[in-house]
Each structure stands twice: as structure tokens, then as C-alpha cells.
Write a structure and sequence with these properties.
Blueprint (H helix, E strand, L loop, with lengths): L8 H4 L7 H16 L31 E10 L4 E5 L12 E6 L7 E10 L5
Antiparallel strand pairs: 1-4, 2-3
Amino acid sequence: MATYRDIADSEVDQDSPGTVSLFSALARNPQAAFEGAAGAPRLARNVTALSGQSANLDFSGLDDFAGVIIHGALFSGADTKRLDIAFSDDGVTFGTTQTLFSLSDQGYNDNQVQFHVVIDTAPGA
């Protein structure tokens, strides 16, 4: 397993020389992050892939992450489809549901919207 090392701002300012230690950290830190090394930021791979879902999809265990990226496609047939989102800090009580977008039937069976949603949950962001 690779070791994660913080890189100080003083190592990468415009007057700092490139050092073996810096370049080693730049090379090894991404691998260490994906391996879950101590001190490394947490990275998630594909959590789930669903098709034909019409019910709620709950994600939990995200406390140590600074955000969520959701991407996929929404298809509309004979009725309106929506992508709604609501947040909870305890998994029981949720804030007001917000509709991110809605795809309504326009007389076609192949309406589609592809989406990529980035939600930054970092404190102070």
C-alpha cells in the first residue's frame, strides 16, 4: 500500500524547487487515496448502477466525503419523470425535497435527459 503525504503550500509555490520528496508524493498520493491510506482524502468508486428504478435510492455512510457526484440518464414515456433530492444528517429526518429537473411526455416515447450533478458538502463551502 502506498503512503499518503501532505504537500505543503511552501513546496509548490512559484519559487520552490522540485524535490525528490515532492515528486514522490505527487506520484504516490493518488494511489494512496484510492487504497484508503491513513490521512488521505477518501475517494469512492462507483457506488451503484441501477436501471428501471422508480423508488427512492438512499446513500449512506458518506460522513467522511466532501461531496457526491451523481450521473445517469432519465427517460420519459407516457408520464413525467423527475429527479428529486432531499438531505438528511441522521437518515430519518429529511429536509424539503427539491426537484432538480423534470422530463415531461411530449408525445414521444424516447424523451431523454442525461445528467451530471455535483453536490459539495464540505463544511464552509
